[in-house]
Amino acid sequence: MAHEPMLKFVGTAQAYPAKRAADSRASDFQEIADRYAHLAGEAQAARCSQCGVPYCSVHCPLHNHIPDWLRLTAEGRLREAYELSNATSTMPEICGRICPQDRLCEGNCVIETAGHGAVTIGAVEKFITDTAWDNGWVEPLLAGPPTGRSVAIIGAGPAGLAAAEHLCGLGHAVHVYDRHDRAGGLLTYGIPGFKLEKPVVMRRIDRLAAGGIEFHQNVEIGRDVTLNELRDRHDGVLIATGVYKPRAIQVSGVEVSGVVDALDYLIASNRQCFGDTVPEFDSGALNAAGKHVVVIGGGDTAMDCVRTAVRQGAASVKCLYRRDRANMPGSQREVANAEEEGVEFVWLAAPEGFAGDPVQSVSVGRMRLGAPDASGRRAPEPDPGAAEEMPADLVIKALGFDAEPLPVLFDAPDLRVTRWGTVVVDAATMQTSLPGVFAAGDIVRGASLVVWALRDGRDVAAQMGRYLRDLGKVGRKAA
């Protein structure tokens, strides 16, 4: 009988790629850990128990064939492992880096629940695809036979890019319109390099452009072109803008200088890392160097902000979160990384006001947890007592994002939206209230994960493909 390469979880301990020392990594924006060496990657993949019901795949929004490509990796068949991984995901190496595996695939790994430590799925996924790039296994994007139809995609984030790749493969002429000067959306400007180095994103975008997808940068829908003009120009339109409107905080002094939105802060930092001239960074308005920084929020965006502030040379970095550690929405791995790098977390705390202009301090009130809310987490409520004054030269609001008012911005009053501003779509077709206009990603589901955006992009491309196939007109708007 052939040697069984799998089920090594008892004899082989869980091991992630080594992280650089905290004091070393906190001085730059490079990723904090390298990928596996070949033998280590294969050994970790071999820990998979090859479950009859693979809960890792069930809990992956893309339903990646995880046990299958783990087995191929364990057998040293890395090219086949990559091809299988790539069959369900347009950006496997990006998901391997930024997915919250501890809440998805790894969090539902059977050997994790058995006490042996989950298979390190994300790190293996990154290892497989980075190896594929190194060896030239990532093939160019090949457009399908031309259909004579064209598609406009509004938003060059993960949902839009995933849809663009699939629609190009179906043979449609694909045009991507985006407000920024680089494609990628939050992958490019929202996520810091220490989690996702920018060349990793740019090589994916370069591949799409080389495959014939046309990118139109610095285009604001409603300012430079209306939605109806895009509808006239193309056979189908996809709204994949994401959600960018920062959630407000209702306390005194929030309008003073030095109290900034998380996305403004992160975009400035990422632009500076690209080598762009960023006046707000150079002036210090969006630069934490030498400052006492307070970040408000407990999600992954807050973690990005606190860790960025550390790298910019902040004098101190504190994170205020109104719940406790167990009830925070962000990745626990990110919290641990932040703590290692010197971030102080202040649990069960919320701002009550800001003093000074520019800001000099935050008044912090204590919270306690009450009954669970609709999300299942215990709802925070004020805990009576005196507020604490906390020094702060820079306050970053990272309370999440809501949808922008697209019917107004796009000059499209007939575009139906929910009371939260997200776009209403038909559950079966993903089409909006406007014929031929589809929507996907965060602008439909609300702020969510990159992996869900990729899933939505894949699904909406299939629906748009059916719509374009069934159109009575042929070629009228082909690019």
Question: What does the model show?
Answer:
The chain is α/β, with parallel strands linked by helices and 479 residues long. Helix content is 34%, strand content 15%. It has 19 helices and 16 strands. The chain has helices spanning 22-25, 38-45, 55-58, 66-74, 78-88, 92-98, 110-113, 121-134, 158-169, 186-189, 198-210, 227-233, 262-274, 279-282, 300-311, 332-340, 406-409, 442-445, 450-470; strands at 150-154, 173-177, 214-216, 236-239, 245-246, 259-261, 292-296, 316-320, 344-346, 349-355, 361-372, 378-382, 388-391, 394-397, 401-402, 437-439. Strands 3-2-1-4-16 form a five-stranded parallel sheet, sandwiched between helices. Strands 6-14-7-8-9 form a five-stranded parallel sheet. Strands 10, 11, 12 and 13 form a four-stranded antiparallel sheet that branches. Helix 5 (78-88) crosses helix 8, helix 6 runs antiparallel to helix 8 (121-134) and helix 15 (300-311) runs parallel beside helix 16. The longest helix is centred in the last third of the chain and has 21 residues, at 450-470. The N and C termini lie far apart (58 Å). The model has no long low-confidence stretch (mean pLDDT 94).
Q: What distinguishing features does this structure have?
A:
single chain, 479 residues, alpha/beta, 5-stranded parallel sheet, 19 helices, 34% helix
Shape: globular
Q: Unreliable stretches, pLDDT < 50, 5 or more residues?
A: none
**Percentage beta strand:** 15-25%
Distance between the termini: 58 Å
How much is the radius of gyration in Å?
Answer: 23 Å
> Which structural class best describes the helix and strand composition?
alpha/beta
Taking the sheet with the most strands, its summary is: 5 strands, parallel
Tally of helical segments: 19
Helix content: 25-40%
Number of distinct beta strands: 16
Q: Could you report the average pLDDT, rounded to the nearest whole number? A: 94
Widest sheet: strand ordering:
3-2-1-4-16
